[in-house]
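Suppose a classmate hands you a notebook page containing two proteins, each written out with its sequence and a corresponding row of structure tokens. How would you begin to make sense of it? This section walks through that situation. The first entry is reproduced here exactly as it would appear on such a page.
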Amino acid sequence: CFSYKGISEIEECPLGTVMSRLYRARRMLQILLTKYDRARES
């Protein structure tokens, strides 16, 4: 498990970029899982 700072160093990008990318990825995962769950209920 990597810290945000560790990811930033590995990816050679600013810490803020890492944080915003992870936020967007988590949000997209939440949306997709919600859609999947609703489709299974039908």
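The notebook's second entry, a different protein, reads as follows.
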Amino acid sequence: VKFAEALDETPAPTELELKTLRDLQARTKAAHQGTAKGKAA
């Protein structure tokens, strides 16, 4: 196991990154439920 000599804090996500992640999660959930756009419910 190797450890870094200096630790850095990861910056907080940007609004665009959060929006993108939320959209991806919503589309993934819809696909798993069979309610994706363009698909008959």
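A careful reader of the second entry would note: The mean pLDDT is 89.
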